[in-house]
Q: What sequence folds into this?
């Protein structure tokens, strides 16, 4: 079952924005980029720009036939692609009414989905764990990615499926051995993720390697939009929240992140070449089900909503 598209209320930030000294992408393009299907269009994936959060979408391919059909393709064009998106948005042309839009994940089939464990101070405290001295990196398979309003499927192999609201970011250009002071210039933008986790497979089975517990199909809802870096005042001062069936289960701020975006880009690029479209999930705050007393896990019929100020909200029903 897919939930109907609608605007979801995003909670208000109560903490003043702090300036950042890190070098950012230089396009000056403050946009909300999306991937979507047009209802009745035979399933063709399109790239567009929202006219505002929850509003109608400008179809880039309709505006300029030379534009690619995927977000990854758009990012691979670099400044040319973002400048075209900005022109399309300013033109007010080729607008698809929101009612005719089915939003998809902002990125499909990335080369990498990089995840960071134990990256919120308050999350470490809730489990009496020491603060990591270096990033704890793991991954999901790209096939785990699903849309911002698509269903989360409970696998029959797990009885302990849990929620994790996370801020995600997407790489915008290729790089290796990236310096931390340059790292934000490699980031295309930010989005909302749910790092759905099968705790029995993460913590008890498969030699306690995390991969299998993190990468079941539909275990990475992502969206609703890729919010470009110029549209986010400070990604490390955003309220972040998760609700299950309307009840708040996680509520924190991205200022609790131990390793910030630039540090993560610099660290991971020591080991692998980063490419446009690569997705990073940056860790979760406290309030996950496994550390409750008694533990609480997702069941069929539950509705999970993940919210991050300035980025938006994703809502997924558990089936």
A:
């Amino acid at each position: 079952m897919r939930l109907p598209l609608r605007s979801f209320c995003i909670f208000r930030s109560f903490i003043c924005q702090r300036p950042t000294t890190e070098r950012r992408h230089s396009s000056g393009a403050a946009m909300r980029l999306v991937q979507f299907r047009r209802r009745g269009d035979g399933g063709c994936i399109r790239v567009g720009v929202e006219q505002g959060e929850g509003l109608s979408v400008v179809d880039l391919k309709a505006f300029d036939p030379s534009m690619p059909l995927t977000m990854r393709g758009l990012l691979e064009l670099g400044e040319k692609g973002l400048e075209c998106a900005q022109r399309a948005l300013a033109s007010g042309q080729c607008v698809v009414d929101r009612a005719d839009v089915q939003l998809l994940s902002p990125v499909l089939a990335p080369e990498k989905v990089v995840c960071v464990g134990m990256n919120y101070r308050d999350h470490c405290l809730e489990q009496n764990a020491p603060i990591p001295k270096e990033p704890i990196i793991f991954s999901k398979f790209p096939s785990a990615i699903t849309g911002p309003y698509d269903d989360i499927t409970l696998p029959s192999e797990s009885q302990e499926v849990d929620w994790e609201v996370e801020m995600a970011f997407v790489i915008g250009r290729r790089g290796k051995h990236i310096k931390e002071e340059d790292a934000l210039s490699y980031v295309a933008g930010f989005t909302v993720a749910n790092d759905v986790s099968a705790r029995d497979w993460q913590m008890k089975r498969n030699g306690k390697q995390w991969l299998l517990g993190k990468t079941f199909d539909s275990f990475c809802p992502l969206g609703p939009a890729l919010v470009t870096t110029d549209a986010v005042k400070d990604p490390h001062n955003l309220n972040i929240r998760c609700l299950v069936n309307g009840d708040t289960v996680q509520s924190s701020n991205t200022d609790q992140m131990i390793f910030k975006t630039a540090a993560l880009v610099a660290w991971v690029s020591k080991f692998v070449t980063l490419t446009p479209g690569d997705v990073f999930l940056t860790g979760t705050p406290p309030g996950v089900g496994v550390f409750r007393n008694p533990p609480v896990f997702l069941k069929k019929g539950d509705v999970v909503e993940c919210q991050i100020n300035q980025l938006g909200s994703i809502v997924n029903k558990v089936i």
Remarks:
- The first helix runs from residue 60 to 63.
- The helical segments are 60-63, 71-76, 79-91, 121-126, 199-203, 211-214, 261-268.
- Residues 1-21 have pLDDT under 50 and may be disordered.
